[in-house]
Amino acid sequence: MLLSPLFKQTLELLRCYIFVSPTLMTDSLLSEMMQTALVSGRRCYSSSAIAAKKWIYAKVFKGEPTQENFQLHTENLPALKDGDFLAQAEYISVDPYMRPYMMAYPAGSLMIGGQVGKVIDSKNAAFPVGASIFGQFGWRTHTVCNPATMKADQPYVLPSFGNLPISLGLGVLGMPGNTAYFGLLELCSPKKGETVVVSGAAGAVGNHVGQIAKNLGCRVVGIAGSDAKCQWLKDLGFDEAINYKTANIFGELKKAAPKGVDMYFDNVGGQISETVIKLMNLHGRIAVCGTISNYNTAVEKVTDPLRQMVFKQLKMEGFVVWRWNDRWMEGIEANLKWINEGKLKWHETVTEGFDNLPIAFMDMLKGGNTGKAVVKIN
Ligand SMILES: NC(=O)c1ccc[n+]([C@@H]2O[C@H](COP(=O)([O-])OP(=O)(O)OC[C@H]3O[C@@H](n4cnc5c(N)ncnc54)[C@H](OP(=O)(O)O)[C@@H]3O)[C@@H](O)[C@H]2O)c1
Is the pTM of this model over 0.85? Predict the structure, then answer.
């Protein structure tokens, strides 16, 4: 029988939307129908019909990561059960913590990481189709998730960002943003007129810390890895910025912080931190956020920093941002408010394509990013 294209299309729509009766429809028949719908370009998804991709941690890191450490795989997704939803990644984050954290996983594990995307099928009323979400789903294009079965890393529906891009849920309105917000405010207690030094200053967390400190009336000095990054920091309002690759950090810091350093937000550790701590004032506060200077290398030798701690009566505290899980939305809302008031600028370094995740990750570790490094999944 010859069918007109319009009739054929209508028939397919009916098959997809009306004839899906749980009693008559087997999984394989449903899957076949959904495949047809996908091929004909309509928004009618089934997890089993999707060609999902994921990046595997194929070889244990030694030194700087290389392409050999990663392998691209396809995966078949299970059919959705009650409580499940199916998420499609739109942006995936590449973060420094992935380098040390992956050392705790065996080769062959999924690469860990956060992503923002859309719910494209759902049997969970809290995650309806079309919702924009954040999930700690790793480097994968599609994820079937049942939050009730997860002990930690609960996904969440993103609050409305207005006209701002959803990718900010990985940066200034997500984990790095909350790291800057809670890390600085809770651990350093900044006061107007005090001096803050931030290392890793042109990255996702660092530039944000400096901007909050400026909003609070502090003097802010950033330390970053190129003249271009230092200029960007000054354009953002930092009082001074020091290129740690070319400058005598001690000498430049003495000039940039003539009244000494009251707070140090440390993203890098090692010799940079040793130098900053020498210039701390009495009762100075140090928030230890990260030690990226040794993620790819042996730990740098430094002289005993505890001497400075005693005589200057410093307070030094390490933290992991998940400490403030119960106040997560408070941080996002405060940062969103500052953005909307023009008091907080954001910048992203965007790499295109799921297949380029390892390249984006390796590039970020080498300082290739300014602001937040994210990968756009096409
Ligand atoms: N504690 C927490 O909960 C938490 C949460 C998020 C992040 N962190 C930590 O915070 C730090 C910054 O994270 P982020 O997400 O904002 O990353 P990021 O700063 O956006 O990116 C990493 C940056 O580190 C710098 N870098 C690389 N090697 C370095 C070295 N040997 N010495 C000094 N700087 C180096 C590079 O910039 P340059 O060009 O300036 O070298 C690079 O752009 C990391 O240590 C991360 O582990 C901690």
Answer: yes
